[in-house]
Amino acid sequence: MAGLSPVPAPSTPSASAADDLAALRTRAQITATKRLLPLQGVLGELGGLFADAGFTLALVGGPVRDALLGRASLDLDFTTDARPDDSVRLLRKWGDAHWEIGKEFGTVGARKGDHVVEVTTYRADVYDPASRKPEVAFGDTLEGDLARRDFTVNAMALVLPDLRFVDPFDGLGDLAAQVLRTPSTPEQSFSDDPLRMMRAARFAAQLGFHVAPEVGAALRDMAGRIEIVSAERVRTELEKLLLSPEPRPGIELLVESGLAGHVLPELPALKLEIDEHHRHKDVYEHSLTVLEQAIALEQAAPRPEGPDLVLRLAALLHDIGKPATRRFEPGGGVSFHHHETVGARLVSKRLKALRFDKVTVTEVARLVELHLRFHGYGDGGWTDSAVRRYVTDAGPLLDRLHKLTRSDCTTRNKRKAARLAASYDDLENRIAQLREQEELDAVRPDLDGNAIMEILGIPPGRDVGRAWAFLKELRLERGAIGPEAARAELLAWWEGEAGRSSTP
């Protein structure tokens, strides 16, 4: 861990161990103070404001953890003994704007310039094991508030304005050891809020931490309790996990603990299927490798808007149709015919159940449906018409489809990998060449609907749509032929349609 070393094991009398721990905490406070220097202004203002009113205010949770790790944190989360109405009154004085959404749970927010803060009254929640929501009860001590947090590394605080370091559950030691423990017993913690089990997987991905043995055991024993949590909250944690730089450890924890069996059951189901190429232990391992390779391609040309959730979901789930389509062939072979079509339906169903937005569901399912299309390309035997159809079918997803298809090559056979890469290079070159010759990204007929009605002398209706579809197919097959040639083809097609309709 940057800036800190693990707590040394006491090999001398306990006083020496206590001295070592005290020294570590002193270094931690110095480290955090240095790393929070850019925020000294807002921290000092808020701390002084609450202190002058007779209240305690502390920076808590993720911002403290990230300051110690040397990570940037966009969140400024505070906890206080002030009740929500008092916090609102003080934040109204300090900020340019404030909001009270979440006030019933003790949380209010404010903005001043570029700084956005949330202040939550000390909590001492009481949970009904059969309910999704806690019964909110406010607490009176900082230590009591920290005791109800998810993990010890998030149960550290800096009391303002002097940045006094508070760590009643040795989160600093766990931070140094890169381990996730709970302030209370994990059984109590996960019973209080089952979503914390998903957070364990998310932090395994985001921070690269491992769970303590007792936490792992509780995850396995209590995985089914995640079903009481709303799909929206589960989806949010899954998104954060997938958008981390290295999501694999978090995904593995979801699967190994049994959580995935409740929130994304199609994923552990892949462990039962042997990849037809026999280059991987199973399709599950193959899918994790595809995800890692897709992320590598994504990071090689990063998007201004950040990590690509659609690509990552498609990479992870592209083969989930294989269990339902596995067939054992004569001679010992295994086939998964049409698994891309089945997989697209399964992806759509699962992502809808997790309350993903409509655009994400549609785009991920479409990528899954198209991910095998390239394998018909062979040694460049596609006609220009086939290349046009590939681009048209992918539409705005073409760049993602390029990345997904390239990532799907996980063979250890270097010759085969090189051949596939060269073949896809050739396809991309052909697409670029056709783009120079044609408006390939917006393939449209050479005649629009108005021209069709004028040439054929027909009113708006079904026949116009049929004529437009004929011309679109012609455009895909032959490329741009110009309005005059398109007019002649349209009239010949229409005459044939008239002849067919008059045939007894």
From TrEMBL:
Cofactor(s) demanded: Mg(2+)
HD domain sequence ranges: 283-404
Provenance organism: Spongisporangium articulatum
NCBIfam families according to UniProt: HDIG (TIGR00277), tRNA_CCA_actino (TIGR02692)
GO molecular-function term, one example from the UniProt record: CCA tRNA nucleotidyltransferase activity
CDD domains tied to this protein: HDc, NT_ClassII-CCAase
TM stretches of this protein: none
Record keywords: Magnesium, Metal-binding, Nucleotide-binding, Nucleotidyltransferase, Transferase, tRNA processing
Protein's recorded name: CCA tRNA nucleotidyltransferase
Enzyme Commission identifier(s): 2.7.7.72
Pfam families: HD, PolyA_pol, PolyA_pol_RNAbd
InterPro entries for this protein: Bact_CCA-adding_enz_type3_sf, HD/PDEase_dom, HD_domain, HDIG_dom, NT_sf, PolA_pol_head_dom, PolyA_RNA-bd, tRNA_adenylyltransferase
Signal peptide, first to last residue: none
Top enzyme category: transferase
Gene3D superfamilies according to UniProt: Beta Polymerase, domain 2, cca-adding enzyme, domain 2
